[in-house]
Description:
By secondary structure, the protein is α/β, with parallel strands linked by helices. Helix content is 42%, strand content 14%.
Amino acid sequence: MVSVLLGAQAGGDEPLLAEGSVYERLRRHPDVPFDPDVGTGALALDERFGPVLADIHRGYLQIGLAQGLPMLLQTDTWRATAARVEASAWNGADLNRANADLVQEIAREGRASGGTVLVGGLLGPAGDAYVPAEALAVGAARRYHAPQADGLADSLVDLLVCATLPALSEAIGLALAMGATGLPYLVGFVVRPTGRLLDGTSLADAVATIDDHADPPPTAYILNCVHPRVADAALGTSPGVTDRVVGVLANTSARDPDELDGLVDLETAEPGLFAREVVNVGRKHDLTLLGGCCGTDDRHIAEIARLLAGR
């Protein structure tokens, strides 16, 4: 997976370990402030809580290093679009640069220890990730997301990742915005077990449509914010995408997105069982980027890493 993303800059096609949840862990932390507009994106500039954010990333990194696995760290910019920053108390601050700087410093620590560490600049949908009706049209999405994509690229991240997309239209616009930066990029969808995005588009049609519209097309696609069993079912009903979907960043809850949206109590799962399901899905569908999303923490990623290292 590393060689797919960075070509000649890295060798081998070994699995790439991703982090677990950062956003949800901090959103539910009783002592950490959560900005209603930019989420965790402002913490990188907070003298008190920036170190808390950094420690979560560092904890995930240490798991990968301990098992000798290449690691993908992502910036905390899922909600740091230009429009959201302007509407927040952080108007005028460069949250994308601040978060990229924070994660890149941690990545340098890992590289200094001999690890292979990539930094992904993270983008998310303009609206609710579980509500496709809030997704932007293609042109509007390109205009909306281009400033953030450009800002993250200027921050010298290794690649861009857009995650938790519920609808094809906004995914196309995001792909156009990210592709224009010249960086490798991944497009991540929320899917149902039927192999369809939340807007009803089949995963196979979504991949084919974006590949046709974006220039260059995405480096690859991922599924995120879904349980591993949901990912397994979706991929099993989606012929023609096995060479384009390369990873899953999985939820611990198997609930339908309609049930998860606004869920007060975050559901988790026993780390060992969860990790086995994630790694089994990876083996079954030849996925090389594996990690966690909502409900996961160090324990879940440590179990995934242990299984990958012992493969």
